[in-house]
Give the backbone structure.
Amino acid sequence: MMSIEQLLHISEATLKSALKEKIDQAQTSAFLFDSARTRFANSQIHQNVASKKGGVTVKVAIGKRIGYIQAAVLESKQIERVVKQAVKIARVSPENKDFKSFPQPKQWQPLDDAFDAATATCSPDYRSERAKEAIDVAHSASPVVKAVAGSILSAAYSFAVTNSWGVSAQARMTLASMNITVISEKSGSEGFGHAVQSSRHITDINPVELGTMASEKSVNSTTPIKLTPKEYEVVLAPLAVSTLFDYLSYIGFSALPYQQGVSFVKYHLNEQVFDEKLSAKDDVEDPRTVFKLAVDGDGVPKKRLPLINEGSVSEASIFHNTLTASRENRESTGHALPPGLFRMTRPIPYPLNVLISPGTASIEEMIEETQNGIFVTRFHYTNPVEPTKAVLTGLTRDGTFKIANGEIAEPVKNLRYTDSMLSALKSIPLIGKELKAEQLGTVTVPAMKLEKLRFTGTTEY
């Protein structure tokens, strides 16, 4: 793998090439994402794939005209062509009245335990062994288990960023993740179960635990009943909670929707909009978070932000990149997306280190305290409906069960939920005591019991 020093050298060379042009400011970066994945389906490993995706980003400013380009090149002659293209884009672009400057240099420190050599060099054999463990334990759970599918990922990511004001920063980290879906069949009816785990360390991934969890839900999900859609008490597994807060993070707390007037936070400043037991932060230095990058894509050190304080939201909850911060004459909070890591049509300020404060309850205790409710393993196809009211909609999937008199009673066919999170998260009787890193680690959350969640439709599966 290319070293971080080599990436810094490429970024510096790219910046030097840009400054030879007739421009006022420049910002450049070089990145490399080295990933490998072992996939399995029908209870057999069928694919080992690996890829190295590297490149540069060039951002130049001529007055308030900005040219930006990202290209999958790392060689000097190709980079020169990319630089010239960025300059051409700047010259024909309209002025961005909000742009003031690329960031000034700030002191930053590398983060401990961000990079794990064993994960960066993980072999196909190691991943295959873990996949086989998950498959074997899932089938050993019950003879009705029909098929096991999923994948295990090991990856390393590095980037370096420089600009004409003297910014020179770099970061690197490793990622590991495993997901497993188990399909069971009994009396002609299929059941599904799912489990996932993320970490910076491949050795943290526990395929036996994941296989056991997914197979248990799968076996118990056969012959589901149909429930009438209405409001129910719900117990949400961490994976379901993570989906809700992943969406809330960027539709509510990101500066761009806030400035555009489509964030629910803008209309509830300094109000307690959620249960007072609910607190959340974005904190890259918390050891429980997965994405360990000390600086953002602009080279700005990441700040710790209190997103929700005992149910309340405020302007201090809003995270910024350099451009959104300049609109309000404030400093960036270090939330520009890192280069080459995410595919987003709108590169808005985005949090990678959301953590929900844990409570004191276990999932078993949440179920015992529920008389007539639903247990949800995860949500699928979730989308925002009305961001100003934090309305989300989506489907349950891979393990949805009726809770009756404090016990899991029977599986139910999947349901569509459509509800405002301002309502759903207003009363949270219990919060889990264990935090789980889901969704490849951008949010770290506990399980939750909600007093009510509105379901608006059912499926036939």
